[in-house]
Amino acid sequence: MSDAAFPTPPSDAGQVAAEHLAGKGHTMPDGEQMAAYLAPIADGTDGPVVMLNLNKYRERAAYADGRDTAGRSGREVYLDYGIVAQQALGHVGAKILWATEATTPLIGCEHDAYDEVLAIWYPNRAAFVELTNFPGYTEALQHREAALAWSSLIPCVGSDDGTLKTPFDV
Description:
alpha+beta, four-stranded antiparallel beta sheet, 34% helix, 19% strand
């Protein structure tokens, strides 16, 4: 991933397509990131994972192919992806543990500002990868791409029972 500043929502479809092709959207993993994510599956240490999703939405959705969005916001278009994603999560045994709107960061800078935070539990990393086998999921990713100005997806160690836990839980 580039260390350049995160992009602002583009004003035209050409800019969206260029950013998408250049991998500057910070919305999908690159090959190196995906390889690191998959390593525990390959080495037999795969286990429960909570994917921390940090989403920053475009003011207006913008598809790479330039299609008309009828002025819909990124958040509205993300829901088109979310409908399919929710079904796919159930199919792979995953569940949303927590989701909320985010506010202005107390510590950080402009590119640390997100609109939404989600914690999604998966029984293992392989289940996350299996999402792409759910009918319609891969096609729905275009809505996610059009909706997000940038995002972070952080794999965290998950509990066996699919609950949020702290080191202080007894």
